[in-house]
Write a structure and sequence with these properties.
Elements lengths: L9 E2 L3 E6 L4 E9 L3 E5 L9 E6 L2 E10 L3 E6 L2
Antiparallel strand pairs: 1-3, 2-3, 2-5, 3-4, 4-7, 5-6, 6-7
């Protein structure tokens, strides 16, 4: 079985907004972040595999959600 290698993650608690392509916004908070991806605390379930825009600290990044639970999502930066 191969192991997945992750870049070092940094704990965070900054607020963010996850915006779907249809404009619906989900207020969330970072749990951790790396140069390639992130984990967010979310108030409700989020669809995996969907493309979103993640806004935080006056920045916007295109992202894809790779996994989700009812209270957290993990994803990858596309830009």
């Amino acid at each position: 079985m191969s192991q997945v290698s992750h870049k070092p993650r940094i704990a965070a608690s900054d607020p963010a907004v996850l915006r779907r392509d249809d404009g619906i916004e989900i207020a969330c908070k970072f749990v951790d972040v790396s140069s390639e991806g992130f984990r967010l605390a979310v108030p409700r379930g989020v669809a995996c595999g969907s493309n979103y825009t993640l806004s935080f600290a006056s920045e916007e990044h295109r992202v894809v959600v790779r996994w989700a639970s009812l209270s957290e999502v993990g994803g990858e930066f596309l830009d």
